[in-house]
Specification:
The protein has helices spanning 5-14, 21-42, 73-77. It is mainly alpha-helical.
Length: 95
């Protein structure tokens, strides 16, 4: 399988990227290199290999998702550049 120029241009449009014509050829080559590598990997027999979910052995700590009040409002607002005493005041960006 190989990627065509039209497919690279379509992917660029979907990703909202503007590629210059000289870069399209580069991406065609890179995508085809990636696909060739994946094809090579797919030929490897991994039937007897147990899946690896993480290369690091660590315990996941689960906790209840409960609301906690760890800070008081005044302490948080003290770090704000501007507040009205109850909320952060930010510049208006929507007309």
């Amino acid at each position: 399988m190989s990627i065509s120029i039209a497919e690279v241009e379509k992917v660029a449009v979907l990703a909202r990227l503007r590629l210059f014509p000289d870069k399209v050829e580069q991406f065609v080559g890179r995508f085809n290199d990636i696909l060739a590598y994946i094809h090579t990997l797919s030929a490897v027999d991994t039937g007897d290999i147990e899946p690896l979910y993480s290369p690091v052995t660590h315990a996941t700590v689960f906790r209840e998702d409960v609301e906690r009040k760890e800070f008081d409002r005044q302490a948080l607002l003290a770090n704000a550049p501007d507040s009205d005493g109850r909320f952060f005041v930010v510049p208006r960006i929507v007309g």
